[in-house]
Task: inverse folding
């Protein structure tokens, strides 16, 4: 059952990443529903979701990323984690991939002011999956 959840969340994350990249506009209710669904399906991982939310809000306040959607997606990924090591992996990957993303985007798209950050979370999710984080 959990493998199907991981696959569905991955596909939804790919979809919202594409929408964010192209339109830079996501329906808030869609992301909130995704977070709620993952939280309900993984009640034993509640602590990891809460910790991911706190870290995401900290990164939001530090202007590392600029949208509430980023907070929701990081929280959703946190609800998928089952160990503290995987939570630290999420934090580390967010910072490393985020910095790489920002450097690449600033270098390639100098005229863009607002750049989608959700694709970074898709790659983080994929990396955590490949490393056995779910």
Result:
């Amino acid at each position: 059952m959990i493998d199907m959840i991981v696959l569905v969340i991955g596909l939804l994350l790919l979809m919202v990443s594409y929408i964010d990249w192209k339109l830079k506009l996501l329906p808030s209710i869609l992301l909130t529903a995704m977070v709620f669904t993952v939280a309900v399906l993984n009640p034993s991982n509640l602590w990891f979701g809460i910790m991911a939310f706190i870290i995401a809000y900290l990164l939001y306040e530090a202007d590392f990323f600029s949208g509430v959607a980023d907070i929701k997606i990081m929280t959703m990924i946190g609800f998928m984690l089952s160990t503290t090591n995987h939570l630290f992996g999420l934090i580390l990957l967010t910072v490393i991939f985020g910095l790489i993303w920002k450097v690449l985007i600033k270098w390639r798209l100098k005229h863009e002011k607002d750049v989608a950050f959700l694709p970074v979370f898709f790659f983080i999710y994929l990396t955590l999956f490949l490393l056995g984080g779910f």
Remarks:
- The longest helix spans residues 84-108.
- The helical segments are 2-23, 28-41, 46-61, 68-80, 84-108, 118-130.
- The chain has one domain: 2-130.
- The chain has a mean pLDDT of 89.
